[in-house]
Write a structure and sequence with these properties.
This protein is α/β, with parallel strands linked by helices. The strands form two sheets. The chain has a six-stranded mixed sheet, with helices on both faces.
Length: 303
Amino acid sequence: MPTAHYALVGWPLHASASPAMHNAAFAAAGIDAAYELRPTPPGPHALDEVIAQLRAGVLAGMNVTVPYKVDMHSRVEDESRIVQKVGAVNTVVMTADGHMRGENTDVLGFGHVIRTLGAADGRGKRAVVMGAGGSARAVVGVLLAGGYAVDVMNRSSGRAAVLVSHLHRHFPGAELGTGPFDSAAVVARTAGAALLVNATSIGAAPDVGASPWPLPIPLPEGVTVVDLVAHPAETAFVRHARESGAKAEGGLAMLVHQAAAAFTLWTGVDAPVDVMRRAAEAWSMMAPLAATLPSSAPSRNGA
């Protein structure tokens, strides 16, 4: 049988640990497959070529990242119940009858992270999520399912309103609000919150000094921080949260576990999670060197 090809589709892409993780996993599992990046600039027909390659069997499956997670939701013929709830797709699986099935393994990855932090039970608690893109939809869906009240902070009030409208339909009665994404508003909303999540790309390489939280201000006592940025492994935001005494986790753990779930969906084989984690960690250590090499598309994304 020919080598099966998988890809990550998004823009920009070069700072991504996904090829390292998946190719290491294929090798460890003895699967004849390869994973590559497919940088896809935004445009009215941006996804047409990769979708055509999926249908033709050139690609066996794919991951989707910024800015296409919500767009892909409208392109798949079938979708998991998780995708129905959050309205975003990060993994596409080809079914036996040739249909594209949308999955969202970000939900599984983020769920793993908050369980590890002891923050999965949100009953009687409030969370603040910065960002309203595809990753934020997965995060908010997990938090609402866990019983949290959630505030979504975003620069575009319209985009936040769309997210809230979609999730309200699938989580009736949930306490879900929005607010402006600026320093004063984020600090004010985080007071008394149990969880603060960065679901933006702020602080991702190469802009590693940036933070979605104003760095001179300590984090409130008792708040737990999750930063979805995976590169660098410890962002300025995570470092500041830990220095403030907060429990904090960067995006690498979520990245590994969402990738492991995608691997299993594609292959039917249990993912070698430890192999994937070691590959992601090794990539993260080497990525600063790789970032100095010529590239057609500098990236702010770690997934």
